[in-house]
């Protein structure tokens, strides 16, 4: 850094010589970064407004309660976390069927989307943490808040990108890790499995439900998963399939 005296001399020299002193780029760095953040925030607000304009509150009934889930009509080529897909409804029916004792169980949901599955688990007494990418959290948080008042445990919503920042969750011990329709992007399979492995404990049960859109792709995911996990149960529904896996004990 220049001393005040040297800075004054440099300023005088540039005036005498007729040269123009260049202002260091670093002095504008914080301003530029803040401006970019403001622009990004404005863009997100505009996007959310457009999403709201395309959305509707869709009624569902699960676990003896009428739910109101904000959905945005999208195609598979768009951001899919704004819609309740068939597998989501099938998973909710499975949970309310009572095959799992969820009271006071800790659950981590990956790719929660609209949050309907985690909401139903919360209504059934579980302590649920719902996670997804940052861009869908606004809708996820609203749906959770609207439908879980008075639950035994207040559900939590957190940002989670598969394969990144997992140490934030390392101190937690989950009874279940669940996900619905989260295996359709094959390029994310390794990050997803890495995330599940990192957050699993010996007692953790992994429940994944999906609509079988691409059987060959689903098969490749299961083959990859079974390098570290064993499939202990499977259920077939009219519009979805659910399987339970447990991590293979390394001795």
TrEMBL record:
It comes from the Eukaryota. InterPro entries: Methyltransf_16, SAM-dependent_MTases_sf. GO terms for molecular function: protein-lysine N-methyltransferase activity. Keywords: Methyltransferase, S-adenosyl-L-methionine, Transferase. GO terms for cellular component: cytosol; protein-containing complex. Pfam families: Methyltransf_16. GO terms for biological process: methylation. The keyword Methyltransferase applies. PANTHER family: HEPATOCELLULAR CARCINOMA-ASSOCIATED ANTIGEN, RIBOSOMAL LYSINE N-METHYLTRANSFERASE 5. This is Protein N-lysine methyltransferase METTL21A-like.
